[in-house]
Structures are given as C-alpha cells and as structure tokens.
Amino acid sequence: MADAIEIDGSMMEGGGQTIRTALALSALARKPVKITKARASRPKPGLKPQHLAAAETLAEICSAGLRGAKPNSTELEFSPNEIKPANLNVRIGTAGSISLLLQQVLPVSLLQEIKLRIVGGTNVAWAPPVEFLQAALFPVLRKSGARLDLKVRKRGFFPKGQGVVHFSSKPAKLPLKPISLTELGGLESIEIVSSSASLPKDVSRNQAVAARHALQHLNLDFIEKIESSEHLATIGSAISVFARFSKGAVLSGSALGMKGKPAEQVGKEAAQALLAELEAKQPCDSHLADQLIPFMALAKGKSEIRATKLTQHCLTNIAVTEKFLPVKFSVRGSLGEPAEISVEGHAFSP
C-alpha cells in the first residue's frame, strides 16, 4: 500500500488496542495504514470477531478499502476516504466487547452524526464495562467538546453476548478543548451499578450490598442502580463502582460474576479494585488514561492528566498516536505506578 503508515504489531504490547487506535486515527487523518503481526503477543494471534466488527463498521463510515479482514488474520490494510453520517446495525457476534468497538468509532464521531445499534457484550473480561463509558469517559469528552450519547437497552455477558447498546453522536465543537485531570478534589459520593441476567434477582442486590459494606468506612452517600432481568438470551452478572470527586474526577472498580462465584465475592472484588485506585490519590482512573490519549493529541493547547497507574495500553496508545499526528507526549512515571502525562495538542479541525 503506497504511502501507508506501517505498524508492526509484534513491537507493541497493546494487542487489540494497537488495531483500534491505528484504524481510528487513520480514518480521522485520512492516512492509510498497514498493520502486520496483529496481536502477535496474544496466545491466539490475529483478528477476532470484535476486531473484525469494529474494522468493518469503521470502514463503512468512511468508505474505506479493507484488506485482510478475516478471522485470525495477522495483517490488515485500511485505506480511508471521507467520513460520512451513518446509521448502522452492528452485530459483533458472541460476547465481543461493545465498549472496545466504540473506542474505535469515537474519534470519527467527532466529525459526523453517527448512530449505531450494537449487539454484543456489555460486561466482559479484559474490557471496560459500558457503564464506564457513561460514567467516566463520556463526561470528560463532552467537556472537551464532543457530543456523545450512550444508552444500554439490554445486558450481554460471556459467552452468548446478546447485549444491546444504542450510541449516537453529533459533530463536535472543534478543535477540542484541552483535557485536564490534575486535581482530585474531595470525595463526594459512591455510585454502584449492579446487574444480572437470567439469574435470581438477589444476585444483583447481594453484589451491591457486599460492595457497599466493603466501602462503608468511607462514610459517604451511596447511589445505587440495581438491574435484574430474569429471562434473557444471556446469563451472567457484573458490578461497577464509581467514586465521584468535587473537581469532576471519577475513579472506578468493577468485577464479573461467574459460575460458582458467590455474588458477595463479586461485589467485594469491585470495591477492592476501587480502593486500589483511590490509594494512588490521583484524579485520572488507570483505565481512563489510555482512552484519553488520542483526544489529548487532537485537542488545541496543552492537555495533562495524572493517572493512578501507567499501563501498557496507555504507552501503546501514545506510540500509535504519535505515528499519525505531529505530537510528542511527555510521560513522567514508571509502568505500574502513578504517572503524569501531557502533550501539546495538534488542534485538529477538518
């Protein structure tokens, strides 16, 4: 592919994150990309259903040429054209993550009205739950100028998925305002989102009770959202816990239920994950930091975040973003430790 940006997946540890960020910025910058050795570091390398669904959805939005988009392929070529409004039905297949598919679509949604009905997994392993996008990611992006909305119509768990989410966007106010998450502020409240499908109603309730009990020493108000659907095509449970601060910071913890695992243990695990984030005393959740990297680079002016933990996904996103945009990130901190990340944005505007 002539003049394509080439990315060797074996040189990056982010797995599917490399693919998502590369294709998203390829579409936005109108620069073709060729990815080789995709997900080379994973036990089963190559493209899986959620990667294919995301690539095909993005290709349809920007009328892109797409080569290598087949199961287990380790090479993918993407040649974008003009981004146009879209109204699509997307079926990921099995319980592929809806949140990860949306990560790939969010950058192009800055330019056009995009409407997606997505069927897949809402709460699955190794991916942010959809409520994380609602509670943590979208509020930051809206403050920066994005116009995004997300509604969960039905939960979907591994292995069947069958969750349904409606996503919509309108053209953002570009260039984006810089992103700043540098002050924690005072801890004001805890939000609990506990859900289950095709299980007794007590499962969702017991998860929430256990999480609240593990966090009661914080002496805060609890806001609870308990969801229970006893008759769905999917079966499973999940819980997310969000700590909200006076200066807008949101830190999180989550856990998934599984066969033989008591609901009380699931709730306790989510609370413990949140407490680990709180211990770092930084305003940017470790799972949020990597998702903000492309938008920090696109914004006008200096963006700066102080993350609870520097992750490999974050470093991967920085490396890929710097291949597509004329920016250079500054990272102060070590992998697995709190870190300060900043960049002078590109001030992207079509």
Automatic annotation (TrEMBL):
A Gene Ontology biological process noted in the UniProt record is:
RNA processing
InterPro entries assigned: RNA3'-term_phos_cycl_insert (IPR013791), RNA3'_phos_cyclase_dom (IPR023797), RNA3'_phos_cyclase_dom_sf (IPR037136), RNA3'_term_phos_cyc (IPR000228), RNA3'_term_phos_cyc_type_1 (IPR017770), RNA3'P_cycl/enolpyr_Trfase_a/b (IPR013792), RPTC_insert (IPR036553)
> Which UniProt keyword terms apply here?
ATP-binding, Cytoplasm, Ligase, Nucleotide-binding
One example GO MF annotation = ATP binding
Could you tell me the EC number(s) of this protein? Answer: 6.5.1.4
Chief location bin: cytoplasm
Spell out the SUPFAM superfamilies in the cross-references: EPT/RTPC-like (SSF55205), RNA 3'-terminal phosphate cyclase, RPTC, insert domain (SSF52913)
Q: What class of enzyme is it?
A: ligase
Annotated RNA 3'-terminal phosphate cyclase domain residues:
11-331
Coiled-coil regions, chain positions: none
Where is this gene product found? Cytoplasm
Residues annotated as the enzyme's active site: H313 (tele-amp-histidine intermediate)
| Keyword presence, Nucleotide-binding | yes
Q: Where is the RNA 3'-terminal phosphate cyclase insert domain?
A: 183-279
**GO cellular component terms?**
cytoplasm
Described function: Catalyzes the conversion of 3'-phosphate to a 2',3'-cyclic phosphodiester at the end of RNA. The mechanism of action of the enzyme occurs in 3 steps: (A) adenylation of the enzyme by ATP; (B) transfer of adenylate to an RNA-N3'P to produce RNA-N3'PP5'A; (C) and attack of the adjacent 2'-hydroxyl on the 3'-phosphorus in the diester linkage to produce the cyclic end product. The biological role of this enzyme is unknown but it is likely to function in some aspects of cellular RNA processing.
Q: What family does the database annotate?
A: Belongs to the RNA 3'-terminal cyclase family. Type 1 subfamily.
Protein name stated in the entry:
RNA 3'-terminal phosphate cyclase
What species is this protein from?
Answer: Candidatus Iainarchaeum sp
